[in-house]
Design brief:
The protein is α/β, with parallel strands linked by helices. It has 6 helices and 5 strands.
């Protein structure tokens, strides 16, 4: 009996009860610990926001001529109106005939906006004046041979200026070059710039 107790005490002293769990035997299923996240560790999945398509800003290019502070070619939004284009060109000159304009008209690409003088007869503002609009056969207006009615089809040429051109031809003979048109009373640099692409002396 005594040797048995001594043997038990010897085994306990060499291998005390351990707090660490024993290694599971082969063939036994080891439980997998599951960690439950705390509130701060909870992962909130956010759905990716839909890509916002880039806004394509369309624009129009218009040619502003006549009685404005700064005539020229301007680029504006395709939602702009004639009034916006006039403001961009510095506004109207005191001699401009604003009644001849449709300031509320929506702009279109390659549009020509011609601001006439008071009392001047002009084509409709929305019409883009080209050489084909001047004569039915598509040729330029010959200022040496055109009559009064044909001269008045040119942008910026009303009855008084057409008669002045005819009077100049009778007094001085044919124009030698298109720039000589500026020698006619009432036709200055701006008027000439507006129609120089639509006239010829040949």
């Amino acid at each position: 009996m005594l040797p048995t107790i001594a043997l038990f005490l010897l085994i306990v002293s060499q291998n005390p009860f351990s707090k660490n769990p024993a290694t599971p035997l082969a063939g036994q299923n080891e439980p997998i610990p599951i960690k439950i996240p705390t509130l701060n560790e909870t992962i909130i999945e956010q759905e990716p926001s839909a890509p916002i398509p880039s806004e394509q800003k369309q624009s129009v290019v218009v040619d502003i001529k006549g009685q404005v502070v700064s005539p020229g070619v301007y680029t504006l939004s395709n939602e702009s109106r004639v009034l916006d284009a006039i403001k961009l060109a510095g506004g109207l000159l005191p001699i401009a005939d604003s009644k001849a304009l449709n300031l509320a008209a929506k702009l279109s690409d390659e549009m020509v906006i011609y601001v006439p003088e008071i009392g001047e007869v002009t084509p409709v503002i929305e019409t883009v004046l080209t050489s084909k609009d001047v004569e039915s056969d598509g040729s330029l207006v010959n200022i040496n041979t055109a009559d009064e009615s044909l001269l008045m089809t040119l942008s910026g040429i009303g009855p008084s200026k057409a008669k002045a051109i005819l009077a100049y031809r009778e007094e001085h003979g044919p124009f030698q070059r298109t720039e000589d048109l500026k020698n006619v009373t009432g036709i200055g640099d701006r008027t000439f710039e507006n129609l120089q692409d639509f006239i010829t002396v040949n």
